[in-house]
């Protein structure tokens, strides 16, 4: 009967660990009963983990000699523990947060080359990664001229099957993109206001007016002040605004669209609903 190993002592030397692994592999092959095989396989697993940690520690010491330390070194360590080598990206100058996005992408099995580029910050990389995970055509927004929030509005539109070309324009803020996206969802002719000449307030008011089937022919012009549009909108919904009161002070983009103020995209925890919108905790 094979000699059982009730408790394995992990040697400090990598060479000794490797010799014990070789010996245990032979024992497992020769085991004739399940009890011995279980003991030996457990010990073998512990030694293999110890060998991996030893190799990682050795690699990290070498990386320190290259000037890699702090958060970058820790991200590389976590990557190595998951079988992912981030050193080539660290050498190219990616920071710790960018390395983290590459790590997450490789862990999920997506094509990280689509976003492992120095011109993208970690937020942009995260939005592209999430798009790849959702199998959307990230080439539409994986461009450095879009910031992370703009990228996310385009990503959400793609998930919803909307014609994002209507607002995939880096000259639109993410808020303007959201207004156009909202109009597309309602079946509104967004071409009326999806123009660079309109500011955010004009866009949102025209969208809301059109959603109420109001005649916007007198207002759908960039030269018409948003204040004038707002007065007409409030009149239609039955809210009285005095002549000396600025209606825009009573108008809140986030209130009308149920968007959380100070919205932060959580690419780490990725709290999303099934249709691609971000879930915001109250």
Descriptive overview:
It is elongated and about 90 Å long. It has a domain at 1-65. The protein is mainly alpha-helical and 282 residues long. Helices cover 51% and strands 0% of the residues.
Number of E strands: 0
Helix content: 40-55%
For the biggest sheet, the summary is: none
Please give the alpha-carbon distance between the first and last residues.
63 Å
Keywords:
single chain, 282 residues, mainly alpha, 0% strand, elongated, disordered C terminus
In brief:
With 282 residues, the chain is mainly alpha-helical.
Write the layout of secondary structure elements.
Blueprint (H helix, E strand, L loop, with lengths): L13 H17 L3 H31 L5 H12 L5 H5 L4 H13 L13 H12 L14 H12 L14 H13 L13 H12 L14 H11 L16 H5 L25
